[in-house]
Sequence to fold (244 residues):
Amino acid sequence: MKIETPFAFEPGQYASRGAAEFSVGRFQDAALSYSAVATSRPENPDALYNLALCFERCERWDAAAEAFEHVLRLDYARAEARLALAGCLLHMRRVEEALTHFDRAAVGPHREAALFGKAVTLQLLRRFEEAAEIYGGLLSSSAHAEEALSNWIALAIETDDLEEVRQRAQRLFDRCPQSAAALRGLATVSFRDGDHNAAAFYCEKLLDLAPESLEAWHNLRIALGRIEFGLAQPAFTLYSGGKR
Fold:
């Protein structure tokens, strides 16, 4: 006699549940739902891709990278999976591998995002001229212009190119006066120029954005001290890095 199972597994129901859980930020629950679907449909790249996205949102970079790699074995041309894999590898500091995948993704529909990731990777590899060239090319893109300028400022500070910091930070400030990257860059330039009034102004703006920043408080005190007393206390480096 055949016994009917009252709780027969329905992949479609689990996929719908996973989508609902993902949409409200319950990524671990969504991962459990999508894992059940992926297990029942191991040759379905969509199920694996959704599971990989859950791992990515949970910052489980190893698991996410493994899942994205599996997706690409099933569907080599899936550009969004390759781009996501590159990002996971970058978080894992597997920088050379990330660069390879950003390069491959740059010829697909996500070209600008892939180029931005490539520039970040090149910057980490200290290949500054190549990174700067890509950032420059992204400035015409409304989607990535501010990120490109932020990282370009970090690159210019790292290479001690004060004039480049000045130009890029001012351009970003004109575009977005609330940009912390622009304010840090302009404060750094002002300190180097000996313009402590300007340095104090930019530090105050930084504190408006991040009142808890000890770095900004320290440098504001230095700027005000130099204005009032002419003290020669050195300022900390204001820039801590661009968006990565």
Q: What stands out?
A: Residues 1-7, 239-244 have pLDDT under 50 and may be disordered. The CA atoms of residues 19 and 30 lie 7 Å apart. The chain is about 70% helix and 0% strand. Residues 144-244 form a domain with the Serine Threonine Protein Phosphatase 5, Tetratricopeptide repeat fold (CATH 1.25.40.10).
